[in-house]
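Appendix C reproduces, verbatim, an entry submitted by the partner laboratory led by Prof. M.T., so that reviewers can inspect both the input and the predicted structure.
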Amino acid sequence: MFRLFVGLLVVAVGCGDEEIEDYCDPGPCDGGTGLEETGLEEVVGDIERGVQVFAAACAGCHGADGSGGNGPGLMYLVKENNDSMLTQIILGGVGDMPGQNLSNQEVVDVIAFLRDTYGEFNEDGHR
């Protein structure tokens, strides 16, 4: 099992054509999950369910293994963004990617799968 922190209500952020980096100011990208200060409840992500949700909602554009396709590969995106940022991207979309209509549990499960596949957020680790 993979532990993440997610709120009972996650607000989707509309992104339009903004770059991902625009969300880092003033700072969900400063380390940690970025969710600690929002009064969130602990939810456990399930990697196997994350694989299933990813296959249904994400693989069409990002490839079955997340290496890319019509959408970008996810290795660097996952390592360079904390869980709060990934949640915003998944639910709100970014650039040409539309926001996904997933439950909080499904988002946590997908992030658990992505972290298991590509590794943890590395606040020092821009490519």
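Residues 1-31, 36-40 have pLDDT under 50 and may be disordered. Additional entries are available on request from the coordinating office.
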